[in-house]
């Protein structure tokens, strides 16, 4: 019998809530996070623990059928990947921030500036829309350090509680987008696995309804 292949974040902010929602919908998983792949005991489901940034490509290629992932990652890398369900957790923003003391009146103030980010496509779209050109420094993590070490004038990164910005002496000046965890679907999902997905979605909808 066919199994639905689902990707979840291996470690990081989404991991815990992703595992919780699977538990809430009654799925019990054979082993913990040490393995990169696990099976559900009571549903035809295989769980793949993957790096966030790799998940959109796995969905595009049909290596996995579905994924629990931040909308912001899909927007950055996913383009044609469909969202089946918004999951109501891990809300965050993707925002522009500058040093607390910097003058910032409008997006035009970014003209010619150096922006550090892990979300180049999102930033470029935002800059294009506003007809501003800037120089991007692409870094994979700890982006908020960049202005302090003289690498950038501004950053674009995820803001959740705002504490990382605060600790690094930065202020949020633009919200580019708002995001939450979603259930994303591969364009290559088989008809058989689509049926399994519908069962999972039905259970998720019941759980989400119960929370409101
Ligand atoms: C994420 C994100 C921000 C921070 C936002 O970083 O890149 O830096 O969390 O959360 P906050 O507003 O609640 O402080 P993470 O700690 O996951 O590490 P990384 O940037 O090194 O991947
Ligand atoms: Mg960070």
From TrEMBL:
EC assignment: 2.4.2.17
A GO term, aspect molecular function: magnesium ion binding
Record text on activity regulation: Feedback inhibited by histidine.
Coiled coil feature spans: none
Enzymatic class: transferase
Reaction catalysis annotation: 1-(5-phospho-beta-D-ribosyl)-ATP + diphosphate = 5-phospho-alpha-D-ribose 1-diphosphate + ATP
Cofactor: Mg(2+)
Compartments where located: Cytoplasm
Record pathway: Amino-acid biosynthesis; L-histidine biosynthesis; L-histidine from 5-phospho-alpha-D-ribose 1-diphosphate: step 1/9
One of the GO biological process terms: L-histidine biosynthetic process
GO cellular component: cytoplasm
Chief place of localization: cytoplasm
Keywords: Amino-acid biosynthesis, ATP-binding, Cytoplasm, Glycosyltransferase, Histidine biosynthesis, Magnesium, Metal-binding, Nucleotide-binding, Transferase
Top-rank lineage group of the source organism: Bacteria
Stretches assigned to the ATP phosphoribosyltransferase catalytic domain: 51-205
Family stated for the protein in its record: Belongs to the ATP phosphoribosyltransferase family. Long subfamily.
Protein function: Catalyzes the condensation of ATP and 5-phosphoribose 1-diphosphate to form N'-(5'-phosphoribosyl)-ATP (PR-ATP). Has a crucial role in the pathway because the rate of histidine biosynthesis seems to be controlled primarily by regulation of HisG enzymatic activity.
Annotated protein name in UniProt: ATP phosphoribosyltransferase
